Amino acid sequence: MEEALNSVIDTIDHAHHHRLQLEDSLQLLNEAKGQVGTSASNSREQLKNHFASLKSAIVTALDSRLALLLSQVNKIESDATQPLAACEDLIQAGIQKAKGLMDEGKSLLESDHEANRVNMLDLKIKADRMALSSIPEVPDVSVVACISVDIPNSLKDHLVLPISSHGKVISRAPVQITEIEERPGGVLVRWGEIEEEHDQEVSEFKLQFCSGSTRSNDDKKFTWATVCEGQYTGFVVRHLQLLNPYSFRLCCRGEEEKKWSRCSVPVVAMTSIPHYQWSDANDSYMTNSEGTTATKATAESHEVLYSKGAAYTCGHSIVFKVVETGSIHEDDGIGLCISNEIQNTLKIPGSLFLSSAGAVYVNGEKMKTRLPAISANSVIMFETEQIEHKKIRATIESGEKSVTFDWKLERELIENQFTDRSVGFGMTVHDSKTTNLYFAMCVLCENWKVSIE
Q1: 367 and 361 in contact (C-beta within 8 Å)?
Q2: For 71-84, what is each residue's pLDDT tens digit?
Q3: What CA–CA distance (Å, rounded) separates 137 from 128?
Q4: Cα 422 from Cα 181, distance rounded (Å)
């Protein structure tokens, strides 16, 4: 009997959890439907206002074209809404089934347990048949229609001939943000083209962001700032506040186009990873309040300054900016390490080191390839990829030159375990395991100042 009671209780709990998941899915579905409906409504209004200004000159032609474009809007809306409505019906049906199962279970709990023992066991069989773990997939708002129109400037004086091709209904922006990943103190944004939505080959992208959460490009409360403009297909937006939501949007244009395309639907995300920071435990160095810049304070020690924890993750990039330099010593430089043991040099096993003279040392051994010497205003980027358990493929870029090689390690790497984590509002990063390293600098003389990004 106790087993049957526990089975009923487990079934109710499972059904309750299933119902909550369905209700969350329904909320996402309603957001997707709202985007389709609102954008369709806005597009209709925009079309009507534009064509109304031309009606006095060519009423018949304008009315004909308007009807055609409105039918396109209606068709896109209808085509986009039908699968969403079907999905809603499926979710609603699932909610009702789950509720019915819960009610039946509660009724059995309040009845004569011995008399209803068979019914209690049958309830579990019924629950299994209902597949409570199955949740209908709800499309993300970025893949459903968000209807708009492309209307050139007034054609009142020359409209009669081109009227048949005037205006265009666009279901989605020609470029969309495809992925957002957390980075220390920032996020990596990637994007891609929707070829059928743009007439010309895209030659330039523009990424913008603002602080706060918005799904509308027309919300006047938000001020958008451009952070990237060019042929890139990804960009790391840095210096973000932790756990503060930011909205990101994207537009593009062809080589011969002056006007930027319509912006993509904003995507909201945040970072929970603190910015790279230098350790404040080394008295030979001073750090700023954010811990992002370190200055050599005394020439009495050549001790290595490490990061605050093994903060650098393999697979990411890290940028050192040399703000100022002091007198040069042959052991001066920056690098990555697998440990933060007290050292007076980075020319040691378990270290990847770029000296101030531009020499590269791997596990303490000098490589033949040289990079430009480090000087004030130098920008050095390290980028790594773990290719085996004890092997890292590393690239160091300084000035106009870069070098790539495999870094073999004798010690086990530092591994951090993560589960799926959200970076905000529907965007989730799926990390199973990351390999972390320390970043470091080693200089003898005073006045060296190095910042980290």
Answers
A1: yes
A2: 998 998 888 888 88
A3: 20
A4: 10
Residue 284, Cα to own-chain centre: how many angstroms?
A: 38
Q: What is the maximum span of the chain, computed from C-alpha positions, in angstroms?
A: 91
Summarize pLDDT for 51-61 with one digit per residue, the tens: 887 777 667 77
Distances in Å between the Cα of 144 and the Cα atoms of 174, 177, 284 are 13, 14, 57
Report CA torsion sign: 46, 48, 53, 55: positive
CA–CA–CA angle 82, 150, 140 (5° rounding): 35
Tokens of 81: 């809404």
- Which has more confidence, 258 or 166? 258
For residue 19 the two structure tokens come to 């119902």
Distance from C-alpha of 429 to C-alpha of 140, rounded to nearest angstrom: 15
Residue 361 vs residue 169, higher pLDDT: 361
In the chain, the amino acid numbered 403 is: V
Q: Determine the pLDDT at residue 419.
A: 37
Whether 213 and 245 have beta carbons less than 8 Å apart is answered as yes
- For 367-382, write each residue's pLDDT tens digit: 998 999 999 999 999 9
Q: CA 192, CA 202: separation in Å to the nearest integer?
A: 10
The β-bridge relationship of strands 175-183 and 186-193 is antiparallel
- By C-alpha distance, which of 186, 196, 220, 195 is closest to 207? 186
364 pLDDT band, cuts 50/70/90, is very high
Using DSSP's 3-state secondary structure scheme, residue 441 falls into strand
In sequence order, the β-bridge partners of residue 228 are 207
Of residues 338 and 423, more confidence is placed in: 338
